[in-house]
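Dear support,

I submitted the protein below through the web form. The confirmation email said the job was done, but the results page showed an empty box. After a refresh the structure appeared. I'm attaching both so you can tell me whether what I see now is the final result or a partial one.
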Amino acid sequence: MVKGIYVITDESLVPDRTHVSIARAALEGGASVIQLRDKSAPDERLISVGCEIRRLTAAAGALFIVNDRLEVALACDADGLHVGQEDRPPSELRPLLSGKILGVSVSTPEQAARARSDGADYLGVGPIFPTSTKPDARPPVGTDHIRLIRTASGGLPVAAIGGINERNIAEAAKAGADAAAVVSAVVCAEDMAEATRTLVRIWDEARVPRM
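What the results page shows now:
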């Protein structure tokens, strides 16, 4: 199951930091999930990058998720695929992902219920807090939205995302999120491994087990 610290790679935030170097540092710090997210690179490059991240996550016992790019996810045998509301419909993707995880970003109870019926295994919910990573992000929904979305989806695991950092990650944990997805809190840190380690520690201390 998707749980713990979920690090999303982004090469555009800090010069000379690559998807692989971000993944390596995050795994060293104890990340449970790595998502490869790149909307512009060609498939050939991302398949090569994805195969390297696949090796790193397998060695670390972590999950490897690819954002949006189905062909990349299949070519490097990722654990799963994550899509947003503007990407290919989950109902079309589910039959193509036998044995793999399908995550779907949602922001309303209606989207959550539909994602479940379409075969989603977990939901990305946010932005929980204000975020600058995605310029087109919606206004923050707050931590109460975590429970709202879980109820609407019939109890699917929830990965909270959006503006999460070491100052507020405990709030997401206490609200019952199964995972905390972060980008800049790790990618923009001076020491990415140590930043991840700190997030893991705070998360584990604050996490409320699901009943």
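Response: this is the final, complete result; the empty box was a page-load delay. The domain at 4-206 is CATH 3.20.20.70 (TIM Barrel).
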